[in-house]
Amino acid sequence: MTQPARETCPVDLHYPEPAAADLDLPAIVGRGRRIRRRQRLGKAAAGAVACMAVASMAVGLRGTTFAWFPGHSESQAGRAVTPIDSFIAINPPVGGKLTLLSNRPKGWTTIAWATRDGQVCWATYPTAPGGVTDQNCWQPADVPGRGGEGFGPLMPTAELFPVRRVAVPEFGLVTPRADRVTVTFFGRRFSAGVVPVPMGGGKTIGVYMIWLAVPASANGYGSGDVGGAVAYDRAGHVVARHGPGL
Amino acid sequence: MRLAAPVSSQPDLADFADFVRSSQAKMVRLAELLTGDRGRAEDLAQDGYAKAYAAWTRIRGGDPQAYVRRCIVNANTDWWRRRSWREQPRPLVPDQPERADMTTMHAARDVVLRALARLTARERAVIALRFYSDLTEFQIAHELGIAPGTVKSTVARALGKLRADAELRAEAAS
């Protein structure tokens, strides 16, 4: 790519160093070894099940549930292990079920699942090999009302997707009775469909992925910019409300 | 640098130690520009190096600095966005120096960090990668996973904000 004439930065980022960097190398190596061990464990677990579910989700329908631990007849597929597999192996889904949350924008897949220890996790990754991925889990305390009432906190993802306008995908939890949610953000209303994710014991939790537009004039954003949220059931009745600051 | 004897006793550890020794100043500075906080910067750099160590056999023949840089930028985005979702973003560097005998060196650094703190996380990242790490727009796009056009517009927007920054203007005038 040809670079245009070089701009100059109004601040000097090469300012004199007040204190020399002094990182703790033994601690780095120790932590590196732990990461390596964890990766080996995750890859071994993921490799052992050799699941095809994650890859097949790219062409599935939103809300479709896939088995992460397939039967022996399917386990010889030998698909290459992805970073998402490692994450799932570390946070195994209850009942071995993953749910497709979204396969938009094109070329990206987002899945959600509840873990055996009560967390609810999501992971988003490009369908093509390589590239940046993102994943995270809500802690059990963040899952709305145990009985599934109300809203859980919104959780932002990195600005992974190559969108031209300033829009940020957020993930949220809501009562499984909800079919759709609206979130007011910087005074504008945004809407998203809710996907029921199995939590085990016949229970589900509602998970949604919502795209929120950040005004160009905004210098960052936060929960304070959420004016409120409303959840509706299939018939359009309000089933949950949340005030500002979701 | 605190080097324990066993760390350099194996060939790959010796290589890695050399790599850390030769690049840590740059990486800590990059993280400081992103976070505005020296302690947080050292934590990010340390985490980045730990991940690099975990992947050392794979990355040592390539560009390990780029790997650590990506770890730092991604980890900072991760930290910032979680923090920002709970709190309103504000400059991380205190307006007042911590000590009355602050040297000119510290003052210069604080002015820069305060100015950067008034940018968004992405603007800080592109400015730091462009003007400190000296990457091209294409390389930044690759490292941040965004389009080159987005890098270009973000750089332009951030430079505009810095040029209009009242404190920087006052500093330049004085």
What does the model show?
The complex is a heterodimer of chains A (246) and B (174). Helices cover 15% and strands 33% of the residues of chain A. Chain A has 3 helices and 12 strands. Chain A has helices spanning 25-49, 53-56, 83-90, and strands at 65-67, 97-102, 108-114, 120-126, 134-138, 155-156, 167-174, 180-185, 188-200, 203-213, 226-232, 238-242. In chain A, strands 6-7-10-9-8-11-12 form a 7-stranded antiparallel beta sheet, with no helix packed on it. In chain A, strands 1-2-3-4-5 form a 5-stranded antiparallel beta sheet, with no helix packed on it. In chain A, a hairpin with a 5-residue loop joins strand 11 (226-232) and strand 12 (238-242). In chain A, helix 1 (25-49) crosses helix 3. Chain A is globular and about 65 Å long. By secondary structure, chain B is an all-alpha fold. Chain B has one domain (11-173): Up-down Bundle (Butyryl-CoA Dehydrogenase, subunit A, domain 3), CATH 1.20.140.160. Chain B has helices spanning 11-35, 38-54, 56-59, 64-86, 104-117, 121-132, 137-144, 148-164, 166-173. Chain B is built from 9 helices and no strands. The model of chain B is unreliable at 1-9 and 80-101 (pLDDT under 50). In chain B, helix 1 crosses helix 5 (104-117) and helix 7 packs across helix 8 (148-164). The interface between A and B is large, with 48 and 72 residues.
